Amino acid sequence: MTTIKTSNLGFPRIGLNREWKKALEAYWKGSTDKDTFLKQIDELFLSAVKTQIDQQIDVVPVSDFTQYDHVLDTAVSFNWIPKRFRHLTDATDTYFAIARGIKDAVSSEMTKWFNTNYHYIVPEYDESIEFRLTRNKQLEDYRRIKQEYGVETKPVIVGPYTFVTLAKGYEPSEAKAIQKRLVPLYVQLLKELEEEGVKWVQIDEPALVTASAEDVRGAKELFENITSELSSLNVLLQTYFDSVDAYEELISYPVQGIGLDFVHDKGRNLEQLKTHGFPTDKVLAAGVIDGRNIWKADLEERLDAVLDILSIAKVEELWIQPSSSLLHVPVAKHPDEHLEKDLLNGLSYAKEKLAELTALKEGLVSGKAAISEQIQQAKTDIQALKQFATGANSEQKKELEQLADKDFKRPIPFEERLALQNKSLGLPLLPTTTIGSFPQSAEVRSARQKWRKNEWSDEQYQNFINAETKRWIDIQEELELDVLVHGEFERTDMVEYFGEKLAGFAFTKYAWVQSYGSRCVRPPVIYGDVEFIEPMTVKDTVYAQSLTSKHVKGMLTGPVTILNWSFPRNDISRKEIAFQIGLALRKEVKALEDAGIQIIQVDEPALREGLPLKTQDWDEYLTWAAEAFRLTTSSVKNETQIHTHMCYSNFEDIVDTINDLDADVITIEHSRSHGGFLDYLREHPYLKGLGLGVYDIHSPRVPSTEEMYNIIVDALAVCPTDRFWVNPDCGLKTRQQEETVAALKNMVEAAKQARAQQTQLV
Ligand code: GLN
Ligand code: ZN
């Protein structure tokens, strides 16, 4: 008989009303003192744990909770303090200084946590670090909960392989040695837990899912060295976000339990389980409830899935748990959330997911009949949501079914289009443009607030937007930019703006998730068929166009970016959703074109971050991602110029896809890439229209004409002149007017000088 337990890997830190964010920001501002702050954080920690205990989770994690980021916690515990912060004496000050920077010392870099939208602080290695355990947060947290609630918990820590993989500041060849140097620290930390009587520790090694067989073997040695020092403490080696290729190696690790993700693994873990079995004396911690999406689980289907796993893995003990930490979903349904009932009932956030696990356990222990009511309820809710979500527009279904190859392809190749576009657009050599947005000033934001609060009528608001648009069209003309934009003053966020105007999207008031530090986002919810309702950008674009004889670019967010920055439904594939969005946007593109707009930009800044973790899965994703983009953009006339924009420069790894988008022009971030990308282009020329950002928009600094001129000239050494564009790195919405105008003035001057020089050459 297998013992069944429920377990959790991590819980959102932010609190139901983002109390965590408020506590942090008040402390940073200096409006609360340190003692008050620490007390608030402690209360939030207690309450997060309490929620999990109340949901009857048997194995509750601690130390997933943090004051900022769990990777930073690990680094600081190991005394990995970057040199520039070592003069600080107070531990809390040092911690936040690394995360946020101080005068004279920039913060550590922040980057995406695997393929999620959570960002962690990148640990910085350097030779001068003295490896030393400065704090045992795991032990402190364990004690705190034991003292408060009398409950045993499972401390969580990032494992040595993952920690070093995520860090920077060393050569790849040094990785192993650094991991080894960390072993004694892990041993000390774990031994202290053992002495305290802790039963289980969870060591997170998500980086193993992309590790080579050799690395999985190497990491096993680390674990051998660690666990051979322990006697009574049980180690759960936890993987998530995908399967581990070297499965046989993984299950032979000298640990007492192994956690596998059975949701985001494309079925590979079950396959491996079937082929290679699972050691009966180890605990199998099976991730069976999706830790990354927000949808209610079909309990019967999940119960059968667990039974399936159990029929193969004849383990003594099985833990059922979310597929990953619940950090990536909102805390719990908020009592004040007003959504349509059928939608609300179909949702399941962190707290609700734990209840699902508890129900599943009951079903496993006492039989399906024991939870028949919950099973029925889940089915009813899911059914009702499906009903609610299905678009009334049967036309669109037909359109999607009838899509043919020609709908994904512009009728003639790029070179031929270029000739036609050059003729009809009449642009100078090295045309100048911007990426779309102009400063979202305090006035713009306050106007939007007034309108949202109904203090301003639609008309008042539209008049304001128009006036701001006109002001910036005038500025752009004055600057002598070649291709103008309307400025995006009507948009807060590039996904939200479109989501609010398309069918199939819902926006919540309270469903926040942490993005980084105290920063939280509310991703749009794609619950149903995405459909075009009416033109979304035509009015503002056409108005801008009416003010100038120069071309105004239409400005859309692409289908892949909209998808990647939302919570997608899970009853159809991501590809299908991307195609629905693509088809809807295709209608917007047509509406813009019909209204006389000849240049249309479809931004895809999030295309690359949607890449699957395993390179073997890249092709499939990149293929449909490019198709969705082309579905959006290929219906236009040959003379209509399609632009796209992405906010990164090194597109080496996806260059085929970039080409595959078949956009006439791509503008990308470039100014900070220090020529590395030009070296690449020298070897692999890019032959479609290309705009390499000539100035960094992340800083208020105004670059000189000469500086930008040099960037252009360097680029022209490797890029064909007749299709090269001059533009900033990205949109300018976070900048001030003064610096924006000054920088663009220099940019236009730099382009003019480069143009003059080129014409002389000819
Ligand atoms: N058009 C958008 C803007 O200028 C693009 C933003 C982005 O690339 N993230 O703001
Ligand atoms: Zn950008």
Quick overview of this protein structure:
The chain is an alpha/beta fold and 762 residues long. Zinc ion binds at residues 435, 605, 645, 647, 730-731. Pathway: Amino-acid biosynthesis; L-methionine biosynthesis via de novo pathway; L-methionine from L-homocysteine (MetE route): step 1/1.
Report the radius of gyration as a whole number of Å.
27 Å
Cα-to-Cα separation, first versus last residue:
84 Å
Bound molecules: glutamine, zinc ion
Write out the strand line-up for the largest beta sheet, numbering strands in chain order.
Answer: 1-10-9-8-7-6-5-2
Low-confidence stretches: none
The coarse silhouette is globular
- What is the structural class? alpha/beta
Biggest β-sheet: count, sense, barrel? 8 strands, parallel
Number of contiguous helices: 27
Helix content: 40-55%
Strand element count: 21
Beta-strand residue fraction = 5-15%
Describe this structure in words.
It is a single chain. This protein has 762 residues and is an alpha/beta fold. It is 44% helix and 13% strand. An 8-stranded parallel beta sheet has the order 1-10-9-8-7-6-5-2. A hairpin with a 2-residue loop joins β13 (513-516) and β14 (519-521). α1 (19-29) runs antiparallel to α2 (34-54), α7 packs parallel to α8 and α26 crosses α27. It starts with a strand and ends with a helix. The structure holds glutamine (GLN) and zinc ion (ZN).
